[in-house]
Amino acid sequence: MAEKSEKKVGFFTKVKNFFKRIAKYFRDTASEMKKVVWPSKKQIINNALVVLVVVIVAAVLIFLLDSLFGFILGLLLKTAV
Fold first, then answer.
1. Contact at 8 Å (CB) between 22 and 15?
2. CA distance 74 to 69
3. How distant, in Å, are the alpha carbons of 20, 24, 27, 66, 75 from that of 13?
4. Tens place of pLDDT for every residue, the chain, 81 residues?
């Protein structure tokens, strides 16, 4: 049988490599953040308003449907009794 040759890595080498990977992560993150195209203030306000309008419309629609179904259920229960 062929034996696998494994390198013995010391504790300090592992710790050193760990901190190198952390430093690389932060360098890569900073590099990627420089590539981000941030929206303007006008775009942010516009998008926020669109979201608020859609949420309000959805809430009103759900309220109306709930009221309608509740009314219909109330009629059905009154006639069943």
1. no
2. 8
3. 10, 16, 21, 64, 77
4. 555 555 677 888 989 999 999 999 999 999 999 999 999 999 999 999 999 999 999 999 999 999 999 999 999 999 876
Strand, helix or coil at 25? helix
Q: Total structural domains in the chain?
A: 1
**In whole angstroms, what is the distance from residue 51 CA to residue 45 CA?**
10
Residue 48 lies in a domain: yes
Tell me, yes or no, whether 5 lies in a domain.
Answer: no
Whole-model pTM: value is: 0.58
Is 29 part of a structural domain of the chain?
Answer: yes
Question: Is the torsion defined by CA of 18, 22, 28, 31 positive or negative?
Answer: negative
